[in-house]
Structure formats: C-alpha cells, structure tokens
C-alpha cells in the first residue's frame, strides 16, 4: 500500500501543487517514515533532474566587516568569530580562485562579497572580474551575491555576463525581525525582484535552525516558490562562536533530510541545493540527501571549511550520480586502477601501547 508521502508525490507528479498541510506532514513525519519520505521526494527529483548533480563553487571576493547585524552570520557587525577578513580580491586573484573550482568539476561560480550592498564602483569591479573569467572560460555560469541592489545595478551585472543573482530570504517573514534588524524582509524580496526584472535567474533560499517553527519553515518555502526562485539553497545553521546564535543546535541529520524533502515536494522542478552546514548537520546522511537535492557546493564555504573537494566528488559518484555538464575527467574521477588498494594497517588498540579506536 502506498505511503501518505507517496500519495503527496503522486499528486505533485500529476500536476497538483503540494499544500502547506502536505509540507508539514513531510516535516513532521516519524523516524520510521524517513526512508519513505526520501523515496517519495526522490521520484520528483528523478523526474526533473535525472541522476545529475549541479556542482557550484564559492569565491568570497570580500570577507568580513559587514555593517549588517544578521544574528547567524560570522561576518556580521560586532562578530567576534575568528574568520578571515580581507578587502576585495584583485581581478586576477578572483579568476584564479574561480578557475580552481572549474578544474575541480564545478560548472557554476558563485561570486560573493560581504556588505549591505554594492556601490556602483563595486558593480563595475565585479563586472570586470566576470568579463575576465568568461573570456578564459566562456562556458562558465556565474552567479553574483553582493547584497541589496539599487536601481540599474542588476542590469549592469546582466550586461557584464552574470547569469544569476543570489539573495536569500533566509527565513519566514514572520520570523525575519528576530534574526536581523538592519534591513527588512521587504528589502530582500525587492532585491530578488530587481534581479528577475533584469533577466537574471533568481537564486534565493533559506537557513534552517534559526529558532523558527515548523510552520515558519513551511512559510519560507512557499514564499520562495511564489517568488519564482529558480535555485533554492538550503543552508543549515553553522553556529559560529562569537555570534548571537553561538551554541544553537536545533538540527539533526534526519530533520535536515525532511527539510530537503519538503523543499522538493513544494518546489519539485526547482534546483534544490544543499548549501552551508551540509557536512556538520547531515553527516553520514549526505549521500541520502542527494536522492532529494540535485545541487551542492564544492569544497569550502565563505568563512568555513567544507570537506575535501575530492570527497564531494566521491560522494556524488559513490551514490550513483553524475556531475552535471562534466565528463569523468573534469569531474575529478580517478580510475579504480589509480586508487590506493592497500588497507590502512592497524597500529592502535590490542597489541600496542596506543589507545584503542573506541
């Protein structure tokens, strides 16, 4: 007998959008239903994206010293987090960093800077970087993430060759003022709409684990669907020491899977990207999450390290997926004959003076 989650997937596949009640049913499912939830959402993922995984690579153009007070952010005003802080990379440095991601198997470069929003001079600076990158790598897809946009800036980025613009809603409108006070929810929606109006593909997502309720997670996802976000990064809070949310741990691997599955049910044909916090919160369930999501970041994040880039590519391959737009060599695959075969020898525990692995 089909599960209730299969019934939701059947309806979505038949063209009936998921309701808020459907989303809550996925989010609040029992542990013994988790594989049923993943299997149901995976049907939607396979229908729209097959077995491909889009690989994205972040280039942090300017890090730290942001005047905004987003409680979750290590770059926020007043943050005591011990992160890298630097001003704008030179254009050649930015292109070099982006090229490293492309060599690693990424097809989309996300160029990010801290701050409330760019000046017109900043827009020109980024436009030059994008032009230089596309001159060397004309096939690359570029997403910019520079903060709140003003009149004409989205159009300038589009003319420079930027393909998409990221500006996350981050949380529900009803929860927004609990996590930031220096800008409004409406400010964020306005920037996404400016990007759309200029012909940029809108990329907007959320952060889970900010103290929101189940209903507010659902509210945020439906807002993203209604906003028309083509790509939805799902971040899981990384509670940096030195930020207001230091020590906040609300997430489990199972809850993260349910959030991703809910996103797939609500937005079946949109790119669902497992973003920041993937390794920290999904842990051993990262591979299972790819049955639902169809996009990840390669390597490191803005101010935190990710797992080794090769481990990301192995995660994709070992779970039966392929990197979108890349052949085996470009995706970093190594033939089995080139991989080490000799197991690591035990040098601890019984028969040694080294503590056991227990």
TrEMBL record:
<dbReference type="InterPro" id="IPR024177">
    <property type="entry name" value="Biotin_synthase"/>
</dbReference>
<feature type="binding site">
    <location>
        <position position="73"/>
    </location>
    <ligand>
        <name>[4Fe-4S] cluster</name>
    </ligand>
</feature>
<feature type="binding site">
    <location>
        <position position="143"/>
    </location>
    <ligand>
        <name>[2Fe-2S] cluster</name>
    </ligand>
</feature>
<protein>
    <recommendedName>
        <fullName>Biotin synthase</fullName>
        <ecNumber>2.8.1.6</ecNumber>
    </recommendedName>
</protein>
<keyword id="KW-0949">S-adenosyl-L-methionine</keyword>
<feature type="domain" description="Radical SAM core">
    <location>
        <begin position="51"/>
        <end position="275"/>
    </location>
</feature>
<comment type="pathway">
    <text>Cofactor biosynthesis; biotin biosynthesis; biotin from 7,8-diaminononanoate: step 2/2.</text>
</comment>
<feature type="region of interest" description="Disordered">
    <location>
        <begin position="331"/>
        <end position="358"/>
    </location>
</feature>
<dbReference type="InterPro" id="IPR013785">
    <property type="entry name" value="Aldolase_TIM"/>
</dbReference>
<keyword id="KW-0004">4Fe-4S</keyword>
<keyword id="KW-0479">Metal-binding</keyword>
<comment type="function">
    <text>Catalyzes the conversion of dethiobiotin (DTB) to biotin by the insertion of a sulfur atom into dethiobiotin via a radical-based mechanism.</text>
</comment>
<comment type="similarity">
    <text>Belongs to the radical SAM superfamily. Biotin synthase family.</text>
</comment>
<feature type="binding site">
    <location>
        <position position="66"/>
    </location>
    <ligand>
        <name>[4Fe-4S] cluster</name>
    </ligand>
</feature>
<dbReference type="Pfam" id="PF04055">
    <property type="entry name" value="Radical_SAM"/>
</dbReference>
<dbReference type="InterPro" id="IPR010722">
    <property type="entry name" value="BATS_dom"/>
</dbReference>
<keyword id="KW-0408">Iron</keyword>
<feature type="binding site">
    <location>
        <position position="273"/>
    </location>
    <ligand>
        <name>[2Fe-2S] cluster</name>
    </ligand>
</feature>
<keyword id="KW-0001">2Fe-2S</keyword>
<dbReference type="InterPro" id="IPR002684">
    <property type="entry name" value="Biotin_synth/BioAB"/>
</dbReference>
<feature type="binding site">
    <location>
        <position position="203"/>
    </location>
    <ligand>
        <name>[2Fe-2S] cluster</name>
    </ligand>
</feature>
<keyword id="KW-0093">Biotin biosynthesis</keyword>
<dbReference type="Pfam" id="PF06968">
    <property type="entry name" value="BATS"/>
</dbReference>
<comment type="subunit">
    <text>Homodimer.</text>
</comment>
<keyword id="KW-0808">Transferase</keyword>
<feature type="binding site">
    <location>
        <position position="110"/>
    </location>
    <ligand>
        <name>[2Fe-2S] cluster</name>
    </ligand>
</feature>
<feature type="binding site">
    <location>
        <position position="70"/>
    </location>
    <ligand>
        <name>[4Fe-4S] cluster</name>
    </ligand>
</feature>
<keyword id="KW-0411">Iron-sulfur</keyword>
<dbReference type="InterPro" id="IPR058240">
    <property type="entry name" value="rSAM_sf"/>
</dbReference>
<dbReference type="InterPro" id="IPR006638">
    <property type="entry name" value="Elp3/MiaA/NifB-like_rSAM"/>
</dbReference>
<dbReference type="InterPro" id="IPR007197">
    <property type="entry name" value="rSAM"/>
</dbReference>
